[in-house]
Amino acid sequence: MSIEDRAKSTAQNLEGKGQEAMGKVTGSSQDEVAGQAKQGAAKVGNAIEDAKDKIAEKAQELGDKVKDGIDNAKREMNK
């Protein structure tokens, strides 16, 4: 997980919320839509980070299983 990327997504989400709110206050539908788009992009960024975390976790699990298999094979060969 990249803390920096998560922070960027959070900042983008907050910026989008602010822009959307400002658009509502000023009556600017363009700002509202742009703010919503920024929030959507932030959600995608967070989903990407979640996927990267899950892949890293599964890769670690697989690596551990491979290591265990190699260790077991070595033990069997040394009997």
Number of helices: 2
Largest sheet composition: none
Number of beta-strand segments? 0
Average pLDDT: 95
Radius of gyration: 23 Å
What general outline do the C-alpha atoms trace? rod-shaped
Poorly predicted tracts of residues: none
Oligomer: single chain
Order of helices and strands: HH
Helical content (DSSP H or I, runs of 4+): over 70%
Keywords:
rod-shaped, mainly alpha, 79 residues, 2 helices
What report would you give on this structure?
With 79 residues, the chain is mostly helical. 92% of the residues lie in helices and 0% in strands. It has helices spanning 3-26, 29-77.
What's this, in brief?
The protein is built from two helices and no strands. The protein has 79 residues and is mainly alpha-helical.
Summarize the SSE layout with pairings.
Elements: H1 3-26, H2 29-77
